[in-house]
Structure formats: structure tokens, C-alpha cells
Amino acid sequence: MNKEIIKNIKAILVDVDGVLTDGGIYYDGNGNELKKFNVKDGQIIKYLKNNLIILGVITGRTSIAVDKRVKELGFDFYRKGISDKVESLNEFLNIYNLKTDEVAYMGDDIIDLAILNLVGFSGTPADSRKYIKERVDFIANSKGGDGAFRDFADYILEQNGLFENILEESLK
């Protein structure tokens, strides 16, 4: 991994199912879809935004629970029901006037492979398939839905020398 590439990261895109969630689909007695998100993943969002990182979600599914969580966390870009994630990446790049090497992406499955291959820095949760792990720059210590995104974000902030500032800021 070229450390200079990670220092150029200006945006982070993330998949939902298997990254921000454990990949499970739960239904209540009325047929409403439920998802489990990890608060630790959400906790780092404000620090990323405070450090001028643009945040986006590209997911293959549609879900009211995801809509609510994305809005609650204040992601800048959100595309759902996407089968061609590269098309959404290109839209993102155009909107924010970025190059692929300025973007980090965390995904966990076959639908993510093309975008993982294009971005400047790629990551996956600890419980991803072997063929995904073999093709990324970073493998989280945590599983999807258990803080994998937090591992990814913390690492990017640390490599950019921003994490110590965040720790100091949180002590005030």
C-alpha cells in the first residue's frame, strides 16, 4: 500500500449489508425489515466530516431502515437499489469533482469488486469472502455490522495524522 495514496483520500464510500450491518435481513411480525447497525461505526462520522471527508453510501438493496440510518448519520451521498456500483461511483466523482484515487471504498461481496478495484484505497470486513480479502488494501479486524467501518475510518484518519487530534478534541 502506497502511504501517499491514503493521504490523498478526500471521500469514503461504503456498502451497507455486510459492512454497516451484519448482512442479515430480519423481519418483524408485520413484515417490516429490520437491520442491526453498530453505534461505533456511526460515532466516527462527525469526526470524518469535521476533517473534510465526504461520505457516501452505495447499496444494492432498498430499505426504510437504511434510509433512516443514512439520514441520521448525515451521509453526503446516498444511492440505493444499485446494481451497477461503478455508475454510482462515477456520479459521485462528478458531483464532488474527485478522482478515483481520492476515494476509499469498503465493500464485502461480488457486487463490490469492480468499485474496490477502481478506488485509491479499498477495504473489507473481517468476515468477507477470501476472494474479496485478496483484492483489497485493508481488512478490518471487525466483522460487518460489528465495527468494520470504524476500523476502516480509524485507519484512514490515523494514516493521515488526524486521529491524535480527534482524541485530544474528545477529551475537552
Quick tags:
single chain; 40% helix; globular; two-stranded antiparallel sheet; alpha/beta; Rossmann fold; 6-stranded parallel beta sheet; 172 residues
Description:
With 172 residues, the protein is α/β, with parallel strands linked by helices. It has one domain (4-165): HAD superfamily/HAD-like (Rossmann fold). The chain is 40% helix and 15% strand. The protein has nine helices and eight strands. Strands 5-4-1-6-7-8 form a six-stranded parallel sheet, with helices on both faces. Strands 2-3 form a two-stranded antiparallel ribbon. Strand 4 (54-58), helix 4 and strand 5 form a beta-alpha-beta unit. It is globular.
Average pLDDT for all residues: 92
Widest sheet: strand order? 5-4-1-6-7-8
Give the radius of gyration: 15 Å
In terms of structural class, how would the helical and strand content be classed? alpha/beta
Q: Class, according to the CATH hierarchy?
A: Alpha Beta
Q: Let me know the number of strands.
A: 8
**Name given to the CATH architecture:** 3-Layer(aba) Sandwich
CATH topology type: Rossmann fold
Apparent shape: globular
Structure in a nutshell:
The chain is an alpha/beta fold.
Helix/strand layout:
Blueprint: H1 3-7, E1 11-14, E2 26-27, E3 33-34, H2 39-43, H3 45-50, E4 54-58, H4 64-73, E5 77-79, H5 85-96, E6 103-106, H6 113-118, E7 121-124, H7 130-133, E8 138-139, H8 148-159, H9 163-170
